[in-house]
Structure formats: C-alpha cells, structure tokens
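Service request form, structural biology core

Requester: graduate student, group of Dr. S.
Request type: structure prediction, single chain
Budget code: on file
Notes: please return the result as structure tokens.

Sequence provided:
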Amino acid sequence: MSAAITAWALLAVMFTVMAMVRVALSAARSAHPEPRATPEARSSELSNVLLVRPVDAPTGGELANLRKVPSGLEQWVMSPDPTVPNHHPSDPRTQNRKLGHLKAAQVDPARTVLVVDADVEVDDALVDALLSALEGGADLAWAAPHPERRGLVRGLLVQSLHSFVVLDAVTFGARPVCGKAMALSPARARC
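Core staff response, request fulfilled:
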C-alpha cells in the first residue's frame, strides 16, 4: 500500500515540476503586449472591432462590467433583458444559450469579433492582448481569466494545476480554449 502511495506522490511531483517548467518557458517566450497606439489612432483601429457580450440575467457585478467599455470599442450585449446597456435582443431557445446569443448577433463577416462573458472586466490590456494575437496570424485567440480578488476562485484559476495557463502549457496536441474572452478573426467570424 505504501509503495502505491509513494508512486502516486512521485508522479504528482513530476507532473507539478513539468507544469512549472513548461509554464515558465511559455511565459519567457510570450512578451507582454505594448500599448498599441495613441488614443486617437486606437479609436480608428477599433472601428472594425465588435465586442459581443452574451448574458441572460446579469448580476450587479456583471452590470458594472457591461457599463465599462474601452474607448473606441462598440459593444453589443446579447440578452433577453432590455435594461442592460447596449442591449441587442436575444432570447435563444437552444440548450447552449451562449452559442444561441452569438448566433443572434448577425455580425458583419468583415469585422473582428471579441466575445467576452459578462463576468469578465474588459480593459485595454485584454483587448490589446487578444488583437495582438490575431495580428500575429491566429484565427482564434483567447485569454484565461485572472481574478484579482483573493479567494477560492483565484486559487483555482490562477494558482493551481487547473489554471488554464498551466493546462495550456502541459497539453500535447490540440490546444485548449478558454471561452471567457475570445477573439475571432474576420475569416472565423463568418463561421
């Protein structure tokens, strides 16, 4: 019995060390995006970018996030609730409500689309990171949630082996995608 526990513990330690090394290597490879442009140039740059926020029954925190839109960015809030800011009516009858809201958006295929959940605060850094990935040639970019407030959620999503960054670093084959904040290139927005 103790041999099985020892083997399991060694495997867990090896996995943790591998995860730490791969995260450190991927962090060293990826540079933080520099500010993209002056506010005037940034506004014209964002004229072809649409922020779509699917939400059913927003909480107080989500409503606060929906009211904060980076300058120059157009936002559509796809929701059955007409009181949300930048409301665009959507009440999908599908099991996957988020996908139903996105289908209801009817976006111009020539636009770059950012899809961000209502519980995520959108700031210039998030927008810049997503758009930089698309400019680098990606058809799809995503950003892992990074809650700032201490607690269980931050511990799980940022400081554990369940972190999306760690899962991405240790995954072989197709890369995982976190659907909390995504960017779709104009070619993918048509799909």
